[in-house]
Amino acid sequence: MNTNWMSCTLREGCEVCGSQERLVLCSTCNVVQYCTEEHRLEHEATHASTCARIEECRTEVRQQRDILEAAIPQFKFVSEGSENAPEVVEVVDYLRARLQLVEAYSLPENILGLQVSLDNLLEMVKLCRLDKLNFRWMTLGVMLSEPRR
């Protein structure tokens, strides 16, 4: 996992100049902001691989979610080994895909990416009581490192 955000200053605002005015999100990843079209075009080559990685991870999460929806019509996540559940469905593949998405969101190393990563980690904690992937500890680390406003 990219942990650079734990030890660096996270960017806010336009990726190129830091401006806080008239910001527009990247239409693909929705994590990187620009104040002008010129700045978006200037940063496009740098941002392209990160943006593609985020989109690739989103696609994998959607595919894993579709698999779970097909397995459970009412789509209830059940932790592995739960004795009270009538039907136990393994969610590790879905959570692993979601964790890769969290990692991709941390690549831009900006506050918006950190917030989206945290939101995804918190949702993952809600989905499963067992934590084979240790995302509860990652969630705590992200929450502690998030700048206070």
Automatic annotation (TrEMBL):
Q: Which domain of life is it from?
A: Eukaryota
**InterPro entries noted in UniProt:** Znf_MYND
Which GO molecular function annotation, any one, does this entry have?
zinc ion binding
Q: Which residues form the MYND-type domain?
A: 14-51
Q: Does the keyword Cell inner membrane apply?
A: no
Keywords per UniProt: Metal-binding, Zinc, Zinc-finger
| Name of protein | MYND-type domain-containing protein
Q: What is the protein's species of origin?
A: Penicillium argentinense
